[in-house]
Specification:
With about 150 residues, the chain is mostly beta strands. The protein has strands at about 10, 45, 55-60, 65-75, 90-105, 115-120, 140-145.
């Protein structure tokens, strides 16, 4: 869906500085995200600048399944803000969570490869709308095709 755009998953913690990194993965952990990160488990972080969120934190559960936490970060300083009890440091809120699954496929004569990512449990169907059913792309609330 073009409304969601493209998503780049960046490994956290980042690989050693001498290892190559994907474009867009140089500064993926702003100060505001630090309290949300589970530093004892590897994860993926995606910067996703939308109105409703800025980052996705993605933690491995089992096999090809991952938990997803959405985060909306607020960097400091806050210009023209009235004086408050707030300490003025950047912070993040987590407006939602869900899970994703890497979907694998195989075409004749090819090895198995990732076809895309199926997000589930992220938006909720709402009144009168049925939840997607099925596996893979058919059961996804949001689908991202693999690029590259």
């Amino acid at each position: 869906n073009p409304a969601y755009g493209q998503l780049t998953l960046c490994l956290y913690p980042p690989p050693h500085p001498s290892e190559p990194r994907l474009k867009g993965c140089d500064d993926i952990t702003p100060e505001a995200l630090q309290p949300l990160l589970n530093k004892s488990a590897p994860a993926f972080i995606a910067t996703w600048p939308k109105v409703w969120l800025t980052h996705l934190l993605i933690y491995h559960v089992s096999g090809n399944k991952f938990d997803v936490i959405s985060a909306l970060t607020f960097p400091a300083p806050f210009p023209n803000a009235p004086e408050t009890d707030d300490d003025g440091r950047p912070f993040a809120v987590t407006p939602g969570a869900g899970f994703l699954e890497f979907i694998f496929g195989k075409h004749a004569g090819e090895t198995e490869h990732v076809e895309g990512i199926a997000f589930r449990g992220v938006w909720g169907a709402g009144v009168g709308v049925k939840e997607p059913k099925g596996e893979g792309r058919e059961g996804a609330e949001v689908w991202f095709d693999r690029v590259g």
